[in-house]
């Protein structure tokens, strides 16, 4: 009888240990299952935060640029020496004066380095400079020089600050990682569309995982495309103005006016469509990179747990 009791106690003890082990294993499995979900929630929250921050940055940048433009208009209207200098510069550009070309070159260069939008300068060049090829070459010269300087400054002077900014933003980090695999595409896309404030894109290119050689060709190509675009817009505005004030009347004048208006409209539609397609591809590349980073982080956390 005593033997039976001992055996029964031993079986009960073994069964209790098995239940305990089973409960512990189940608890561990539940913890393992919850970890990826928690990480996924954290990643989603971080992405939402980055998207919100990105939108706020763009809004703030737009407000700053608008204030710069208004300040320029106020200075032009209120400061007579500046107004006289500007008008004199326009007359010199019309005469293809070398000194005027050099002045515009450095004005455009400084605007690029400090982050002031230059589309007004580009359009003005197309409006004034003849022949048009001179204006296009002038735009390409100061833009390529300015963007090369911002690339080098971003890489060697502001590298640490820019890298800290990228590491805190999943949106920016995705482009940096994707640039190592597709340097031409990323460099070209980031010059064609504006998804960050222009000054951040200009300097941020310096810490992307691309060399200056990989940076040069796609950026030059994008500059040429938009130099032609803005210069032609300026030239078309000039043609419209000339036709409006022309002594020509009747069908010929209206025909010239219609051609120039249609050209401007067609160009804007084509550029807008092209930019939209580029933006879709860039967004797809960004999502792919972010998903890859999230998967790698999940795998790393799982290896640490097991």
UniProtKB/TrEMBL annotation:
PANTHER family attached here? GOLGI APPARATUS MEMBRANE PROTEIN TVP38-RELATED (PTHR12677:SF59)
Give all residue intervals belonging to the VTT domain.
117-235
Organism classification: Eukaryota, Sar, Alveolata, Ciliophora, Intramacronucleata
UniProt keywords (A-Z) are: Cell membrane, Membrane, Transmembrane, Transmembrane helix
Protein name stated in the entry:
SNARE associated protein
Membrane topology (UniProt): Multi-pass membrane protein
Any one cellular component term from GO for this entry? Answer: plasma membrane
Q: Pfam families from the xrefs? A: VTT_dom
- Location of this chain's protein in the cell: Cell membrane
Which sequence ranges are marked TM in the entry?
A: 57-78, 98-120, 132-158, 215-233, 253-275
């Amino acid at each position: 009888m005593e033997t039976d009791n001992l055996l029964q106690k031993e079986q009960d003890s073994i069964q209790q240990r098995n239940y305990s082990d089973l409960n512990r294993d189940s608890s561990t499995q539940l913890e393992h299952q919850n970890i990826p979900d928690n990480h996924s929630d954290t990643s989603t929250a971080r992405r939402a935060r980055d998207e919100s921050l990105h939108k706020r940055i763009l809004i703030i940048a737009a407000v700053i640029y608008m204030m710069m433009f208004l300040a320029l208009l106020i200075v032009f209207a209120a400061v007579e020496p500046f107004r006289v200098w500007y008008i004199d510069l326009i007359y010199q550009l019309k005469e293809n004066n070398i000194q005027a070309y050099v002045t515009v070159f450095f004005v455009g260069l400084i605007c690029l380095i400090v982050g002031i939008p230059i589309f007004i300068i580009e359009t003005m060049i197309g409006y004034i400079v003849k022949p048009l090829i001179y204006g296009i070459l002038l735009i390409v010269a100061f833009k390529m020089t300015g963007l090369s300087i911002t690339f080098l400054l971003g890489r060697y002077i502001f590298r640490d600050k820019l890298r800290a900014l990228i590491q805190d933003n999943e949106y920016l980090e995705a482009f940096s990682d994707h640039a190592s695999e597709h340097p031409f595409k990323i460099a070209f896309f980031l010059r064609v569309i504006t998804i960050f404030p222009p000054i951040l894109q200009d300097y941020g290119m310096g810490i992307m995982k691309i060399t200056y050689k990989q940076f040069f060709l796609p950026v030059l190509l994008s500059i040429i495309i938009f130099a032609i675009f803005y210069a032609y817009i300026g030239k078309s505005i000039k043609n419209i103005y000339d036709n409006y004030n022309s002594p020509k009347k009747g069908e010929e004048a209206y025909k010239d006016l219609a051609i120039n208006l249609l050209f401007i409209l067609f160009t804007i539609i084509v550029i807008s469509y092209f930019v939209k397609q580029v933006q879709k591809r860039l967004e797809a590349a960004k999502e792919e990179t972010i998903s890859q980073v999230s998967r790698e982080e999940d795998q790393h956390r799982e290896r640490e747990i097991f």
